[in-house]
Structures are given as structure tokens and as C-alpha cells.
Specification:
heterotrimer, A mainly alpha, B mainly alpha, C mainly alpha, A: 7 helices, 1% strand, C: 76% helix
Chain lengths: 219, 228, 88
């Protein structure tokens, strides 16, 4: 698994490097024109943002109810990646909106709830950083509550009438738009998996260091 | 079994309220804080002696959430100071029942605060608080339950954590914003010039869903989280 | 007096009508993307910058994060190696 990480990162870097050519060859969208091409980065990062929340919640549940300390490392890793991919989503989104809607930000359900999830990740990481001992269980409880927000975000655009395109645009994409999208999605997903692995490894090594220090103290 | 659960919850709640009746510390400080929040808001937004329309609902809910956070922090600070939470958790009873008791105690306290807060906001910001008393009460009760369900759990967990005073609002507000949104929008629908009752009922429905989710999750996580 | 009231009411309506109209006419969210082969004219330069900025930000953020993980991992693994050699 460790050997796979550099490979995955290299491959996704090459794919992301080549992405502009793929995206350039895709057709323009009829009403939004060129700026719609932000979509090829925005959509993968938004989906991975939600996936990170699910991983963080599930890992926290395993940590809390299954009493597996290693699951906590995965939860932290997922939370940090959620913050990273959430930031990508929340930066590319307003850039696109500025051109397509004429404003940087609107307070519609999807945008608001995405910002909310980003804030939940930030709060979780603040707790883990400054909470000190005992914050791991509290963090796990908080992550479970955060995960409850995810289905709400996913369906919000389809329930309320908002400016944001519906999730149903993706399956109906024509091939020459769909291909670059899934290409970018694959690159982002590989990057996500590799980074998740590395970050969880960092947390597990930290746990080992702490255990070794404890053993040294006792000896 | 069920009756045991409620008996424990009842005793915990009564214990909290008895302490409160003797000292009145949390109630009075929270109440004063809530009134100050409303006044600070009025200084911030009143222009030429008049408040802009449609602000009453927002101010009401901000005051409720701020003072609620204060009350949660204080009630658990008292437990921490005397190290009584450990004793409470050592009692041979269901952990979720203890949680429910703490939650009920907090709800009674916040209900008293809201009884002062709602007429005050109505008076100062010309809000028709008596137009739909039942619907408004439902919104307030459901919103406060959702907010306090998460708050009680987090405050209990934070008892053992460093820098708990700053972390409680940091953790609590992002999680409970859906409840706040539903409360504010529902109340605003009642307070506007032509009240929109179906809209308020829609938000009440949403509040019930969030309350159910939050209470289930809180009851479910309280046990493993509070085990050392 | 009555005239005044009617006039004021009409004025209020005239002001309110576009607002109500605008809120009722909120554009529906897009349910599909229709491809065309040319960029609509007068759009190209700023949109290009925006797409470029989005792409650039993705690179900067990801590289920054990879660098930060690599650095932290190096520190921890060095510490671990040190501790393990001491333990032997």
C-alpha cells in the first residue's frame, strides 16, 4: 500500500497536468460558455468533499463503537482532506458563479450547506489540534453529527429551487463533455486515495511515537 | 425498563433544578446575558428610532442560541468544579437517562429565559408575538430542543477537555445551524406583515426531522463518549 | 385624503411589483448542459482568466498540501527511527 502512494500521486499529477488539453477539446456550454469548464474541477472536488465527510463519519463510528484506535487516524485524515477538497470546491464555485450568475456568492441551500460542512471540518480539526487529551472521542461524536449533514447537502438542490445546477446534469452529459469530466474525476480520486493513505499513515506513526515515549517513561 | 429510564432522567433533572432554585446563578446570568444581546443588537441596527422590518426573528434566535451556549457551559462547569459528573456517571443507571435528565433541566431553564425574551423582542421590535402563539411556541420548543440536544452532549464531553469555554461554541454552532435556519425562517414567516402559516409549518416539519436525528445520535453516542 | 391613499397604494404597488415579479421569476436551475462549438463572443478573456485561476488554485492547494504532509511525515518518521534505535 505504501509503495502505491508515490505511483498514485505521480499518475494523478500527470493526469492533472494533461487535463487542460482534455478540457480544451470539450465543447463549450451553450449558455455559460467557457467558464462552465470550471465544472471539470469543481464537480470532482465537491463529490470528494462529501465522500471525505462520509469516511470521517464512518471511521469515527468504528472508533467509537468498535473501539479500534486506528480508525481515529483515518477519521483525522479524512477530515483534513475534506477541508482541502472543500476549499477547492468553495474557491472554484464562486469563481464560476461570478461569471455565470454575476455574483460571487448567493445564500442558497447548497452553497450554504457546503460552507457549513466546511466549517464543521474546520471545527473538528480545531478541536483535534487544541482540545488536548480526551478530544478524540469528542471529535468522533462531532464527526457523526457532521455526517448527518451530507444527505441534506446532496438533495438540497433538487428539493429547493436554486440557481445551482441539479445533480441530474452529470448522468445526462454528452460523451465529449462526460469524458473529460470522468478523466478529471479519476485523477482527483487517485489523488484523494493517495493523500488519505499518507495522512492516515502520519497519524498512525504519531501514535507509535507516543506509545514508544510512554514505554520509555515506564522503563 | 422504560419507566426506570424516565425515573433516572427525572431525578437528574430535579437535582439540577433544585441546585438552580437555591443559587439561581445560571438562570439570572443567562437571562441578563440574553437581554444584553437583544440590547446590543438594537444599538447595532436601529436607525432614527426605528428598527428595520423582519429583524425580530433573527434577533430572537441569536439571543436564544447565545444564552443557551452560556447556560450549557455554566451547568457543566458546576459539575466539573465539584467533580460531581464523575459521581453521576458512576451511578448504576443508564447513561442515556443521565443525558436526558441534564437535557430536560437545561430545557426548563431555557424555557424560562425565552418567556422573558419573547415579549421583550416583541415589545422592542414591534413583532406580533401573540398572533400565532401555538405555532410560535412550537417553533421555539422544537428549535430549543434541537439546539440543546447537541449542546448538552458537547458540553458534557468537553468537561474533560482543555479550553472548553472557547470550543463549545466553535463546535456547537456549525452543527446546529440547520436548526437555527429553520427556527429563524419559520419565525420570520410568522412575524412578517402578511403571516405565512404554511411556510412556518413547513419549517416546523423540518425541525422535527432535525430534532429526531440529533436526539437519536446524542443518545446513541453519549454512552461510548463518556466512558473513560 | 382618499385620493392620497389610493395614490400611495398605487405607488407602493408600482415599486413592489418588479420585486415580486423578480422573486417569482427566479430562473429555474439548469437540468442539463447543452454543448455548442463556439464561445459566445465577448466572453472569452475574463472567462479564460477565471478558468485559469480555478486550475491554478487547484494546483497550488494540492501541491501545498502534499508538501505539508511530506514534511510532517518526515519529522515523525525521523523521530520514530530515533526512538526505535534507542529502544534496542
Amino acid at each position: 500500500m505504501t509503495k502505491l502512494n508515490p505511483l498514485l500521486i505521480g499518475l494523478s499529477a500527470v493526469m492533472l497536468g494533461a487535463a487542460p488539453w482534455m478540457i480544451d477539446r470539450a465543447p463549450y456550454e451553450s449558455t455559460m460558455g467557457l467558464v462552465q469548464k470550471v465544472f471539470y474541477f469543481h464537480f470532482p472536488s465537491a463529490i470528494l468533499f462529501l465522500v471525505a465527510a462520509l469516511i470521517c463519519g464512518v471511521a469515527s463510528a468504528i472508533f467509537l463503537f468498535g473501539k479500534r484506535p486506528r480508525a481515529d487516524g483515518w477519521a483525522i485524515a479524512a477530515a483534513e482532506l475534506g477541508l482541502l477538497f472543500g476549499s477547492l470546491t468553495l474557491v472554484t464555485g464562486p469563481l464560476w458563479a461570478r461569471k455565470a450568475w454575476g455574483v460571487w456568492w448567493v445564500w442558497d441551500p447548497r452553497l450554504t450547506s457546503s460552507l457549513l460542512l466546511w466549517m464543521i471540518f474546520s471545527a473538528y480539526l480545531l478541536l483535534r489540534r487544541y482540545g488536548g487529551p480526551g478530544s478524540d472521542k469528542l471529535g468522533a461524536g462531532m464527526a457523526l453529527f457532521g455526517m448527518a449533514n451530507v444527505p441534506f447537502i446532496y438533495v438540497s438542490v433538487n428539493v429547493w429551487r436554486t440557481l445551482h445546477p441539479q445533480t441530474s446534469v452529470v448522468p445526462t452529459l454528452p460523451t465529449d463533455m462526460g469524458l473529460p469530466l470522468w478523466y478529471c474525476f479519476a485523477a482527483f480520486t487517485m489523488l484523494f486515495i493517495a493523500l488519505l493513505n499518507l495522512r492516515a499513515r502520519l497519524e498512525h506513526q504519531r501514535a507509535r511515537v507516543e506509545a514508544l515515549y510512554l514505554a520509555e517513561d515506564e522503563a | 425498563m422504560i419507566s426506570d429510564f424516565f425515573r433516572v432522567a427525572w431525578h437528574v433533572m430535579r437535582k439540577d433544578l433544585t441546585v438552580e432554585v437555591r443559587s439561581k446563578e445560571v438562570l439570572l446570568t443567562t437571562l441578563f446575558f440574553a437581554v444584553s444581546v437583544v440590547l446590543v443588537f438594537s444599538f447595532a441596527i436601529v436607525r432614527e428610532g426605528r428598527a428595520p422590518d423582519d429583524v425580530a426573528a433573527g434577533i430572537l434566535w441569536v439571543a436564544v442560541s447565545f444564552s443557551g451556549t452560556l447556560a450549557m457551559g455554566r451547568t457543566f462547569e458546576r459539575e466539573r468544579y465539584n467533580d460531581t459528573l464523575r459521581a453521576l456517571l458512576l451511578a448504576p443507571s443508564d447513561r442515556p437517562a443521565i443525558y436526558t435528565g441534564k437535557l430536560l433541566g437545561l430545557l426548563v431553564l431555557l424555557a424560562l429565559v425565552e418567556m422573558v425574551l419573547v415579549p421583550l423582542v416583541g415589545l422592542l421590535f414591534n413583532a406580533p408575538v401573540l398572533a400565532f402563539p401555538g405555532t410560535l411556541a412550537a417553533l421555539l420548543v422544537l428549535g430549543t430542543v434541537g439546539f440543546s440536544a447537541v449542546g448538552t452532549l458537547f458540553a458534557a464531553m468537553l468537561v474533560r477537555v482543555r479550553s472548553r469555554d472557547t470550543l463549545l461554541p466553535v463546535l456547537l454552532y456549525p452543527i446546529t445551524i440547520p436548526v437555527m435556519i429553520a427556527g429563524v425562517r419559520g419565525t420570520a414567516a410568522l412575524f412578517q406583515e402578511t403571516p405565512d402559516l404554511p411556510m412556518a409549518q413547513f419549517w416546523i416539519g423540518l425541525l422535527i426531522v432535525w430534532d429526531a436525528i440529533f436526539i437519536t445520535l446524542a443518545l446513541w453516542t453519549f454512552e461510548p463518549v463518556m466512558t473513560e | 385624503m382618499r385620493f392620497c391613499r389610493t395614490f400611495l397604494m398605487l405607488m407602493a404597488l408600482a415599486v413592489a411589483a418588479p420585486v415580486i415579479h423578480a422573486s417569482a421569476m427566479q430562473p429555474p436551475s439548469q437540468s442539463e448542459f447543452v454543448p455548442v462549438s463556439d464561445i459566445p463572443p465577448g466572453e472569452q478573456i475574463p472567462a479564460m482568466n477565471i478558468v485559469g485561476a480555478a486550475y491554478g488554485f487547484v494546483w497550488v492547494a494540492v501541491l501545498g498540501y502534499v508538501w505539508s504532509i511530506a514534511r510532517r511525515l518526515q519529522t515523525v518518521e525521523a523521530e520514530l527511527a530515533d526512538l526505535e534505535s534507542r529502544a534496542k
